[in-house]
Write a structure and sequence with these properties.
Layout: H1 2-14, H2 17-21, H3 24-33, E1 49-54, E2 57-61, H4 67-77, E3 82-83, E4 86-87, E5 94-95, E6 103-106, H5 113-126, E7 137-141, E8 147-150, H6 157-160, E9 166-173, E10 179-180, E11 183-185, H7 201-204, E12 207-209, E13 216-220, E14 234-236, E15 239-241, E16 244-252, E17 283-286, E18 289-292, H8 300-305, H9 310-316
Bound molecules: 2-oxoglutaric acid (AKG).
């Protein structure tokens, strides 16, 4: 494309008449505006951010996502959700638990221009590199669904082996909720919050944030000295009326893309984490095998593995794995 514009510029200099019939500068500007990296702020606007707490370190961003971006993230996850999981603190294995009754779906990192732009905006807001982030996890809570108070940092070696601790979480609200569904921080200190009857009882004893479409919360699970911050304990109150859509991006202290563990068994993290995430080349690994996004997967192996590891297989192994989507 750049070569095309160079040739055009050459034509204009050599044949000035061409410039009369072509507004080249405008053309080049519109070319640039279609380039994803032309806006290096990725829509980040610091004037929309307010600091809400130092224990935990938490910030609120009004209008972090546009309505269209929220709807797009929901669209990417709808119909692909599966029951959310939690990680065993000792073994790191994930399992279904009554403490977390929502459903969720991990998007693929950089899977389209909108997702890339949001990932870049997250990196710009948090000052943390994109490669330290997990892929965006879209969450859905129907009436009665919730996530009890928990920490985002891990204690087990298995999960820590991949990128180290989760140091920060960006929680984006993709919908409003009629009642309930507040994110609550029971250990937060020093925040005085008046709550009227529009707040659910669950949220009343703690600092809490009401889901509001497009807004986002950033909080840190580690202190600046890298020790774990117990004030980061948080959860989601049950939805009482309506439904809640949200998306989280967990950011680690190190690069989360580098795959250290290539054992056949998964290195699942909390929330049924994608098993082995894509590398920057767009390839994923499954055990010792490799699969490319654009290619078919591993045939029989996919069929066997898919029911157990749906989100990874469907997302990273292309069309053939869609056969495991039915659930
Ligand atoms: O949905 C929320 O408000 C909280 C989600 C959450 O804590 C998590 O997914 O780790």
């Amino acid at each position: 494309m750049r070569v095309f514009f160079l040739i055009l510029y050459f034509l204009v200099f050599c044949y000035p008449n061409v410039s009369h019939s072509l507004d080249l500068s405008g053309l080049y500007r519109s070319f640039l505006s279609t380039q994803e990296d032309s806006d290096r702020s990725y829509g980040f606007d610091p004037t929309r951010v307010s600091q809400v707490s130092w224990r935990p370190r938490a910030f609120y961003y009004k209008g972090f996502l546009s309505d269209e971006e929220c709807d797009h993230l929901i669209y990417l996850a709808k119909g692909r959700l599966h029951h959310s999981m939690v990680a065993d603190q000792k073994s790191g294995e994930s399992y279904k638990s009554y403490v977390r009754t929502s459903s969720g779906f991990f998007l693929q990192k950089g899977q389209d221009a909108t997702v890339r732009r949001i990932e870049n905006r997250i990196a710009t807001w948090t000052f943390l590199p994109k490669e330290n982030g997990e892929s965006i996890h879209v969450l859905h809570y129907a009436v009665g669904e919730k996530y009890d108070a928990h920490f985002d940092y891990f204690k087990d070696e298995k999960n820590l082996a991949r990128g180290g601790h989760r140091m920060a979480t960006v929680l984006m609200y993709l919908s409003d909720v009629v009642k309930g569904g507040e994110t609550f921080f029971p250990n937060a200190e020093g925040i005085d919050q008046h709550k009227d009857d529009s707040w659910s009882d669950c949220s009343k004893g703690s600092f809490a944030v009401k889901p509001k479409k497009g807004d986002a919360v950033l909080f840190f699970s580690l202190h600046p000295d890298a020790t774990t911050d117990t004030a980061s304990l948080h959860g989601s109150c049950p939805v009482i009326e309506g439904e809640k859509w949200a998306a989280t991006c967990w950011i680690h202290v190190r690069n989360f893309n580098s795959v250290k563990d290539t054992k056949e068994e998964s290195i699942e993290g909390e929330e049924d984490l994608i098993l082995v995430e894509e590398s920057s080349t767009g390839e994923g690994t499954w055990g010792k095998r490799k699969c490319n996004r654009s290619h078919s997967c591993m045939g029989k192996t996919a069929k066997r593995k898919c029911p157990k590891n749906q989100s990874y297989m469907v997302e990273f192994c292309g069309d053939r794995c869609k056969m495991c989507k039915a659930h």
